[in-house]
């Protein structure tokens, strides 16, 4: 038994060291200066995390002025995260979306409104049964003006609902595009059980409660 004790102590020591290093790396991400993505061909980009990216991708693509929504990972301290690695909760990344939009049609302020209107704003580390730090809510800002918009809307919502809003606020640094099979997942897999039972109902709840003037007209 005596020979095991030094091994356990050494294992615990390195585990604590790794945890401290990871925390330090994550704090560096949170405290970093934001990177602003330039408008290209009249299109701007915004970044949000709010649970499963299949759900969030479809929600934003229902909004006027949004040209495309791309699923990926952001907010973490590791390079080239994958679906498998992010699901461990050890990369610091959350499932996120890159929103490509026309700022002449839809404002960043409205995109933030869409964000808060399409989730359970009080749930920490997840949405519904999707739980873990990889599903946490994060709004990414690219400059001080965006940060102030987010802070003001979060504060106003907390006061209105008299609750603590779970969404974290991070400076944008890097967006990693997810694997090909995650892209347009709801549209391409309408009969998937998760899509039928979670993603589509979440989209419909959002559309039922958000001003119709900001939503795309459905065509059948």
Biggest sheet: strands side by side, in what order? 7-6-1-3-2-8
The share of residues in helices is 40-55%
> Which CATH class is shown?
Alpha Beta
CATH topology: Peptide Methionine Sulfoxide Reductase, Chain A
CATH superfamily: Peptide methionine sulphoxide reductase MsrA
Using the 3D structure, state the CATH architecture.
2-Layer Sandwich
Count of DSSP-assigned helices: 7
* Main structural class: alpha+beta
Low-confidence stretches: 7-17
Radius of gyration: 19 Å
Q: How many E-type strands?
A: 8
Large-scale geometry: globular
Q: How much strand?
A: 15-25%
Q: Between the first and last Cα atoms, what is the distance in angstroms?
A: 71 Å
N to C succession of SSEs: HEHEHEHEEEHEEHH
Number of domains: 1
**Main sheet?**
6 strands, mixed
Mean pLDDT across all amino acids = 91
Summary of the model, kept short:
With 220 residues, this protein is an alpha+beta fold. 40% of the residues lie in helices and 18% in strands.
What does this structure look like?
This protein is α+β, with helices and mostly antiparallel strands and 220 residues long. The protein has one domain: Peptide Methionine Sulfoxide Reductase, Chain A (2-Layer Sandwich). The chain has a six-stranded mixed β-sheet. Strands 4-5 form a two-stranded antiparallel ribbon. Strand 6, helix 5 and strand 7 form a beta-alpha-beta unit. Helix 2 packs across helix 7 and helix 4 runs parallel beside helix 5. The longest helix has 28 residues. The protein is globular and about 50 Å long.
């Amino acid at each position: 038994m005596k020979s095991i004790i030094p091994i356990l102590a050494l294992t615990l020591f390195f585990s604590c060291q790794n945890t401290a290093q990871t925390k330090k790396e994550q704090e560096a991400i949170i405290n970093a200066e934001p990177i602003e993505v330039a408008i290209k061909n009249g299109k701007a980009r915004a970044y949000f995390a709010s649970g499963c990216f299949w759900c969030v991708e479809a929600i934003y693509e229902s909004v006027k002025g949004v040209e495309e929504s791309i699923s990926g990972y952001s907010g973490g301290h590791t390079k080239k995260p994958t679906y498998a690695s992010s699901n461990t909760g050890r990369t610091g990344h959350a499932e996120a979306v890159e929103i490509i939009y026309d700022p002449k049609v839809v404002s960043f302020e409205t995109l933030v409104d869409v964000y808060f209107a399409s989730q359970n704003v009080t749930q920490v580390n997840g949405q519904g049964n999707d739980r873990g730090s990889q599903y946490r809510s994060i709004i990414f800002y690219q400059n001080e003006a965006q940060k102030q918009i987010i802070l003001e809307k979060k504060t106003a919502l907390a006061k209105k609902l008299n609750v603590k809003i779970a969404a974290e606020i991070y400076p944008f640094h890097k967006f990693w595009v997810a694997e090909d099979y995650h892209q347009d997942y709801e549209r391409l897999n309408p009969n998937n059980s998760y899509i039928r039972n979670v993603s589509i109902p979440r989209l419909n709840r959002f559309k039922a409660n958000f001003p119709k003037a900001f939503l795309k007209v459905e065509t059948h």
